[in-house]
Specification:
By secondary structure, this protein is an alpha+beta fold. 30% of the residues lie in helices and 28% in strands. The chain has three helices and eight strands, in the order αβαββββββαβ. Strands 2, 3, 4, 5, 6 and 7 form a six-stranded antiparallel sheet that branches. A two-stranded antiparallel sheet has the order 1-8. The longest helix has 19 residues. 17% of the residues are buried.
């Protein structure tokens, strides 16, 4: 038993010894573009949740890559509400791996009525999510010791 413990210690020292001579941290070449512990791209998933974090969530399915918010009424515009559906479609971090759908309603005399979404809203949301996902990927590059 003592011989095995000694062998384990010596083996560990032999493996770690070459790392002692390095000067300064070395960065990993690149964080992997495909992080799929969820069945979808984890960077896009996290970025999507961060982007709509101020909205109440109605449904979240990490296996299917779907996030659906509940209706959100902005404090600045009480006569308008929006609901967002986000689908992460791929395991790769790509521009076409995320799809956003926005529904907008306005309050009329008869109640809530469907209204058009302002031009560029969906595109801005998708770009924001992709940008955050890229930032998350860059920040996951940790120094290698």
């Amino acid at each position: 038993m003592r011989r095995i413990a000694t062998l384990v210690v010596l083996t560990s020292l032999a493996v770690l010894a070459p790392a002692c001579g390095r000067k300064g941290p070395k960065l990993a070449a690149e964080a992997p573009p495909r992080v799929t512990t969820l069945g979808i791209n984890a960077y896009l998933w996290r970025a999507a949740l961060d982007t709509i974090g101020f909205m109440p969530l109605a449904q979240v399915d990490s296996n299917g890559g779907v996030i659906i918010t509940d209706w959100y009424v902005s404090p600045q515009s009480a006569n308008e509400r929006v609901r967002v559906t986000i689908t992460v479609l791929d395991t790769e971090l790509r521009a076409d791996a995320v799809k956003v759908n926005v529904q907008r309603q306005t309050l009329a005399a008869a109640g809530w009525a469907d209204a058009g979404v302002r031009a560029g809203t969906v595109q801005r949301l998708e770009e924001t999510m992709l940008s955050k996902a890229r930032d998350l990927r860059r920040s996951s590059m940790a120094p290698v010791r």
